[in-house]
Amino acid sequence: MEENFILEKKKFIENYNLARPIMTILGDEVRQEILLTLIETGGTGGIRVGEIQKRSHVSRSAVSHHLKILLNAGIINMRREGTKNYYYIDFDDSTVKPVILFWQQVEPMLKRCIKERESRG
């Protein structure tokens, strides 16, 4: 096996391990629905829990619970105006970047693994 391929594969696995915790968090269907709601309302300066609840058809307490998980993971952000909290996605300040990087590398790595396997057999 080529040394270069071994290093590429090692880096790919490292990137996967960085992305894995975020992918696990994003694997929950309720959190996916909340993220979709945040994306659909993007650019509005954020959205409040009640509005997320209306749009996502998830109970208010469930929305709050899942927002806390998304916040703690650094996937979304929150800004406060007085007593009101507004939730939003800021890709410049998000832990989702390792997931994006990982998925950008999947197809090239898959092709490289196929090529390596074919060259051996």
TrEMBL record:
<dbReference type="InterPro" id="IPR011991">
    <property type="entry name" value="ArsR-like_HTH"/>
</dbReference>
<keyword id="KW-0805">Transcription regulation</keyword>
<keyword id="KW-0238">DNA-binding</keyword>
<dbReference type="Pfam" id="PF01022">
    <property type="entry name" value="HTH_5"/>
</dbReference>
<dbReference type="GO" id="GO:0003677">
    <property type="term" value="F:DNA binding"/>
</dbReference>
<dbReference type="InterPro" id="IPR036388">
    <property type="entry name" value="WH-like_DNA-bd_sf"/>
</dbReference>
<dbReference type="InterPro" id="IPR001845">
    <property type="entry name" value="HTH_ArsR_DNA-bd_dom"/>
</dbReference>
<feature type="domain" description="HTH arsR-type">
    <location>
        <begin position="7"/>
        <end position="121"/>
    </location>
</feature>
<dbReference type="InterPro" id="IPR036390">
    <property type="entry name" value="WH_DNA-bd_sf"/>
</dbReference>
<protein>
    <submittedName>
        <fullName>ArsR family transcriptional regulator</fullName>
    </submittedName>
</protein>
<dbReference type="GO" id="GO:0003700">
    <property type="term" value="F:DNA-binding transcription factor activity"/>
</dbReference>
<dbReference type="InterPro" id="IPR051081">
    <property type="entry name" value="HTH_MetalResp_TranReg"/>
</dbReference>
<keyword id="KW-0804">Transcription</keyword>
